[in-house]
User: Which sequence fits this backbone?
């Protein structure tokens, strides 16, 4: 009997193990291909893309909770190197995305290597697409604060609504966090049949990359950490992080003859004191006929956006000088961005489920009462210094791959308003990590030009060799912004157009310009050619009025286009504030051209020259659209 029982147990155990193995096989992650419904620059790039999803459980311990369909794109190399390991690109955020951008570049990330990206939990195509109204509500709360009101009730209501929306959809705190994103990356690797890959993380992606290497060193050939978001112990306060970046830029300004002459004696101490003073004495400014106030959080938020590109970073001394002089009107376009943008970006940028779901689970500092001076980082992101993570308890905290033998490259930017100390983080990781500071780069170092791209590619291709970094000292930066003709309309125009929602004034001006070209140039040219071929005489008396209509309309349009284009070429970092002062004088051509087109319209109507009247009307409409945008010499 004992033998039979033992045999029965053995058979039963074997069957159970077999069933378990079969279940595991069925649960193996699979890449399901789908059409690439993302922007793609050309057909050659389209042929190199594979798009699809990998289904992963929200929580493996609770299968009934459902799944995330991870949005994944594989971009094959234009000229693949045999045997080269692919690259996993980990995007920023948390709550950011990368999938929609994978078809926009024609060149390889690193020559000869495929690159794979996925949108992490809580953002992009992976979703969930929830809490969309919270971004719009936060923008409105920022407007309330600028008007001098109390924004906290609106912010708290938006947060409560978002938490309720997530709960109603079946999402729990345990479904989010960097550890979950690491396991998702592993599922994608297995689904694609990749043995090992190079991992590149930028901004928040460095958090996931570091934790990934700590948990799965066997899966990673080398790791690049670009613009660190490390564990809390290495993250500076808002005041310290921005102060360090401001100090670097002001030191560079002092070494630049023109900048030093324009802003004599400007230093970090003055900047720090001015910023701190706004906590109790907000900075007043005027915009669109209204009076507003910016507290320390609002001013620092405006500064924060300047540290994201090299061009805008070089406007920091000018911004700080206006701030120290309490000249809020000079920087009104930056301070009043929530007023100017309206809801242009209400559904863009970082997704709230990804930001809160991940950062609250990862970061102990968000759960401690804010006691330090100045805003904290959650205050900077959402305007909620305390309680944003109330319903999202701390989870497994990500860390660093301490003691790893896998090569790690750490890149830091001198113009980054968040950047921790790369060398300190590299030292904590151990001898396998090497850190470089690029003083004239902004956040996301690799985007600063050929030098950092070359360093990254050299490291990826042979991490055992020290890359040639002599180019770092040779990197140049755009010229400093020394003076600006304030024009808030520039911020509105740029933001709305880049967000895919051109303002009504742009559409009106474009329609008028098309009418001007058709009625004033194209149709008359066709009629002239037809008359020449048929040897008919030209219509009398229309040339002078037509020339006045076309000349006036073109003059008005040129009065807007040339100053804007000239400013962009002279200094792109100025565009969010206004125009280069000398070029701004050209704006007077707008009303002059409009007046000439209006005169031509009156003459054409009196003479019943309907074609000319249409051309003149086009010129008038184009100028009206331009003035409606706020591009006026008297604005």
Assistant:
């Amino acid at each position: 009997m004992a033998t039979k029982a033992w045999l029965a147990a053995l058979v039963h155990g074997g069957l159970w193990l077999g069933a378990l193995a079969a279940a595991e096989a069925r649960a193996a992650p699979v890449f399901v291909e789908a059409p690439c419904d993302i922007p793609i620059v050309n057909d050659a790039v389209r042929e190199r893309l594979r798009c699809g999803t990998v289904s992963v459980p929200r929580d493996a311990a609770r299968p009934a909770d459902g799944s995330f369909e991870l949005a994944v794109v594989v971009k094959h190399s234009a000229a693949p190197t045999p045997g080269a390991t692919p690259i996993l690109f980990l995007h920023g955020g948390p709550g950011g995305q990368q999938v929609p951008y994978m078809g926009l570049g024609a060149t390889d990330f690193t020559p000869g290597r495929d690159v794979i990206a996925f949108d992490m939990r809580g953002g992009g195509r992976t979703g969930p697409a929830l809490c969309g109204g919270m971004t719009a509500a936060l923008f409105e709360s920022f407007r309330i604060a600028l008007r001098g009101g109390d924004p906290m009730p609106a912010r708290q209501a938006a947060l409560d609504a978002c938490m309720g929306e997530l709960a109603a959809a079946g999402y729990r705190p345990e479904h989010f966090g960097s550890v979950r994103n690491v396991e998702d990356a592993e599922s994608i690797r297995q689904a694609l049949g990749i043995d090992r890959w190079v991992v590149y993380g930028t901004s928040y992606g460095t958090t996931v990359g570091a934790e990934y290497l700590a948990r799965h060193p066997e899966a990673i050939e080398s790791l690049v950490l670009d613009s660190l978001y490390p564990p809390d112990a290495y993250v500076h306060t808002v005041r310290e992080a921005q102060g360090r970046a401001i100090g670097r830029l002001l030191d560079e300004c002092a070494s630049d003859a023109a900048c030093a002459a324009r802003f004599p004696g400007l230093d970090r101490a003055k900047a720090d004191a001015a910023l701190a003073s706004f906590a109790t004495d907000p900075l007043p400014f005027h915009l669109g006929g209204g009076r507003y106030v910016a507290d320390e959080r609002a001013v620092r938020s405006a500064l924060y956006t300047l540290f994201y590109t090299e061009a805008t970073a070089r406007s920091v001394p000018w911004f700080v000088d206006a701030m120290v002089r309490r000249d809020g009107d000079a920087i009104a376009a930056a301070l009043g961005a929530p007023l100017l943008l309206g809801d242009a970006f209400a559904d863009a940028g970082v997704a709230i489920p990804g930001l809160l779901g991940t950062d609250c689970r990862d970061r102990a500092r968000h759960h401690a009462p804010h006691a330090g001076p100045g805003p904290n980082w959650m205050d900077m992101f959402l305007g909620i210094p305390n309680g944003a993570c109330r319903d999202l308890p701390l989870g497994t905290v990500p860390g660093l791959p301490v003691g790893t033998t896998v090569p790690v490259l750490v890149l830091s930017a001198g113009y980054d308003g968040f950047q921790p100390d790369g060398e300190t983080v590299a030292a904590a990781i151990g001898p396998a990590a090497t850190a470089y500071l690029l003083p004239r780069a902004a956040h996301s170092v690799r985007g600063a030009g050929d030098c950092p791209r070359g360093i990254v590619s050299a490291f990826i291709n042979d991490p055992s060799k020290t890359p040639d970094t002599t180019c770092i000292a040779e990197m140049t930066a755009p010229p400093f912004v020394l003076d600006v003709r304030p024009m808030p309309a520039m911020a509105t125009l740029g933001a709305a157009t880049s967000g895919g929602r051109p303002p009504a004034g742009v559409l009106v001006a474009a329609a008028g310009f098309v009418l001007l070209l058709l009625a004033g140039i194209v149709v008359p040219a066709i009629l002239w050619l037809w008359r020449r071929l048929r040897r008919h005489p030209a219509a009398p008396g229309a040339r002078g009025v037509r020339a006045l209509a076309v000349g006036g309309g073109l003059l008005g349009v040129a009065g807007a286009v040339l100053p804007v284009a000239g400013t962009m070429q002279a200094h792109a970092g100025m565009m969010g504030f206004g125009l280069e002062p000398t070029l701004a004088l050209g704006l007077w051509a707008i009303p002059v051209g409009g007046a000439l087109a209006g005169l031509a319209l009156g003459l054409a109507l009196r003479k019943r020259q309907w074609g000319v009247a249409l051309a003149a009307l086009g010129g008038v409409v184009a100028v009206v659209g331009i003035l409606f945008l706020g591009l006026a010499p008297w604005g």
User: Anything to note?
Assistant: The chain is about 50% helix and 10% strand. Residues 28 and 191 are 8 Å apart (CA to CA).
